[in-house]
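Exercise (ungraded).
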Amino acid sequence: MINVQDIRDTARDLLAKGEVRAVIGWRAGSRGMAAEPCVITKPEEADSLVWDPTCYHNLALNLVNDRKELRHAKQSPGAPIGIVAKGCDARAIVVLLQENYFKREDVYIIGVSCENSGVLDEKKLATQLKGFAPTAAAFAGDDFSVTTAKGENKIAAREVMADRCLECRTPFPKENNTALGEDKTGRDIEPQFAALQRFEAQDEAARWDFWQRQFDRCIRCFACRSVCPMCFCDECVVDSIEMKIAPETTAEEKANRIRWVERSATRAENATYHMTRALHLAGRCVDCGECERVCPVNIPLRLLNNKMEREAREAFGFEPGASIGGPSLVASFRDDDPGEFIR
Amino acid sequence: MSEQQKYEPKIVAFLCKWCSSAGSDLAGVSRIQYPANATPITVPCSGSVSPMYILSALKKGADGVLVSGCHIGDCHYMEGNFLARRKLHLVKELLQFCGVEENRFRMSWVSAAEGAKFAEVVKEFVEDLRPLGPQEKLKAKRA
């Protein structure tokens, strides 16, 4: 088990020696028990860092945001930025490196292993606690220790862990500068893609019936896109709002600009949006499950991304976030890719 | 569409400039009879067909989408159709996964010499689409 003091010491040392200009990590949040992402720049702030089962956020997103801010301010990064990264966070960083979003030497990865657990699913926890609001959560071996007004509860991790963590095979950040905790790569708590298999067992009509209900519900808040570390495009294809309009731009040009997807929350537009997102994340999504966690209307977005992930693995032998030097899924091919569907 | 009118499937066909587009021309100049349901759109290469094209066509009311390019190994840009094969395999799988009928999306390799094959592909596609009826699932409803 990781002692949180080790994370703090590492961060303090790095900041004191000036090896990094900041460290991205989690600190105690202001919303109940949940931790929140933070960026610390002074060694004395290191003691505010935490590591507990509420460190849900994929911090690779903050790395992307840092990059965007630097570029906006037209600054060069200088010293690297430190980041505390879980297994999934580190995989996301690998994909970003693969796509040359930044250089390896620009980031110092303090890897933290989830070992045999992962992060909480607040909905599952609420069911377990039968209405008592949790105020704190901590790792306790293979259990979670959750504090409520009634006292401390020991709950088996696999009862309340997020689905993505139950299926996770790589809880250890393989790409790291320094790593804390045991390497449990290859652990097998629950079979992978179980929900996907159950869903696919249904026939076509049932599948559409399911998705039409999901797509109808989407309010197009774009939380899934905002929280995704892979959605770093400056202008997203689904909202072409950045068309440069100059005095000489004609009305026809304005009217005819390409809008692949409208922003209105109707079923067809939502379906196109979610399918486009799934395709743009194919071979890039590392299944951190953040999109599903933040969805305010509970759309099972992991199903779409898992489908693409499994397809990439089975049809093309491709594993996202596996190595920095590897090619990307849709920019590479093999001579024996499946092509039986082509007439 | 009045009820007396027979339903005719609308196909949007993305044809590569070097092979399939020339193949469809050959079908025309050879006077081969085939259904007039396909609206051809010439693209530089099948590898340039973005999944957005397909989803967008379905959203705008296409009943079926056909993507056609050069045979494997014959790409004018060496590897465009290899990339198309991989990319559009994912599109096909995703459409089926979401419950869109398998026959709404089709891909074929048609060379510039295969006018007869192009006619055959379109004929087959139309026959497969007819029993499915109009595509309503992904079509945007506009007032």
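Further reading is listed at the end of the chapter. For now, observe: Chain B touches chain A at residues 51-52, 55-56, 59, 72, 79, 82-83, 85-87, 89-102, 106-109, 121, 124, 137-141 (CB under 8 Å). The two ends of chain B are 16 Å apart (CA to CA).
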